[in-house]
Amino acid sequence: MQRCHGFLNVDKPRGITSFEVVKRVRRFFPRQKVGHLGTLDPIAEGVLPLAVGGATRLIEFLMDVTKGYRAEMVLGGVSDTQDAWGNITVVADELSFSLSDIEKVLELFRGEILQVPPMYSAVNYRGRRLYELARQGVEVSLEARPVTVHLLQVVQAELTQPPYRVILDVVCSKGTYIRTLCHDIGQKLGCGAYLTKLVRVFSGPFSLEYAVKLAEVEERLAAGDCSLLLPLDFPLTSMPKVVLENENDVIRLKNGNNISINAGLAAGPVLVYTLDRDLIAVGHLAETKGKGTVLKPVKVLGTQ
């Protein structure tokens, strides 16, 4: 396949890791880099954006995006992995509270909250992944991390007979573990809870509505069809743009040099284009004494 650069909005199936998705897509780009923009657990499905080729150099600018999920949890038990794929212990055979009680508890988890990462996660602890330690039966004391839950609401609840299921819509900041959120809600309710299903419906500008099933992605890439790839600037459209009309400025910027420019924009990050509208870099505009506005290259896009 010819060299292609851009983003893939993949609909990840349940049951495989994010790394496996990357591995399967990378087969079609043997001389290029491929990476994902945020891990999804194997139990989860939905939006998993991938970066191909030069797009991998933009991943660092896309890690803080807000994400949205549809989550299903079961009340009345706890899991050592905080989801349905772990060892489950029944805590309550019957529930002694109502939907309104659940709503009151959810209020405690909206806004900025503190969350302790689960042991079965890819968090790095002293050079090792937590899930590696968990599989060896090693427990470590972890500090709670601040995350933000922008939206947390009940979509559906079945509380009359087991299994007691609650479906939630969640919009949150990066680094939020939805299975931990479900576990912590269960602890506050006093009955325990664990995640049974999770769908990521959006990650920044990448939405499930326009995501492509992994099987279709593989089929089309195998046929040499690169039209699935979204442009390099697709997830960065809110960033101001600068067009370099002088070819010498393009060359100097590509070589890592600052250039003086009259952009008419405020200081800050910008996307830098050639006159042919090719994205060549992420830059930063800064005011300097005696030189006016200077454009500094932050990340020059090559052919990864």
Helical content, roughly?
Answer: 10-25%
The CATH homologous superfamily of the largest domain corresponds to Pseudouridine synthase
Write the CATH fold name of the largest domain.
Pseudouridine synthase
The string of secondary-structure elements, in order, is EHEEEEEHEEEHEEHEEEHEHEEEE
**Strand coverage percent:** 35-45%
Overall 3D form: elongated
Question: Which architecture of the largest domain would the CATH scheme give at its second level?
Answer: 2-Layer Sandwich
List low-confidence stretches.
none
Quickly give the structural class. Answer: alpha+beta
Provide the CATH top-level class of the largest domain.
Alpha Beta
Number of strands: 19
How many domains would you count in the coordinates? 3
Helix count?
6
Distance between the termini: 15 Å
Major β-sheet, in short?
10 strands, mixed
Rg, Å, rounded: 23 Å
Mean pLDDT: 90
GO molecular function: RNA binding; tRNA pseudouridine(55) synthase activity
Catalytic activity: uridine(55) in tRNA = pseudouridine(55) in tRNA
Protein name: tRNA pseudouridine synthase B
Function: Responsible for synthesis of pseudouridine from uracil-55 in the psi GC loop of transfer RNAs.
